[in-house]
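Working notes for the structural subgroup meeting. M.R. asked for a predicted model of this chain before we commit to crystallization trials. I am recording the input and output together here so anyone reviewing the notebook later can reproduce the run.

Input as submitted:
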Amino acid sequence: MIIDLLDNLEWYRSLHPMLEPLISFLDRAVVYEQVPGRYQEGGFSYEIRSYHSAEEPTALQSAALELQILLEGSELYSIQREGETRLVTTVTEGLFLVLQPDTTYRTSAAESGSTAIKKVIFTLP
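Returned structure, recorded in token form:
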């Protein structure tokens, strides 16, 4: 998993051939105005999610290389391996995460109280 400032995303272009067109797409700021749903753009797909954080985190697993960007709010992420929590971090607006395929993680939790969250998840083939 990689966590960094969205301003630094260009440093990671070599991770995947689709990152260059994805960065160009993000420069147009389209995702900030779109409503929740699934979308296609060029060679990648993405989903915009909008929800309120919960006391109990949601367990998920990445099916492919994922780039997740928090557009609004903040939430806790934890990486799970072999049934144990290996890393816990708070992700806020302006940060992105890169998750490798088959990464088990928990998300949707807040540090205190419920908060509105909007994020975009890009799935890179």
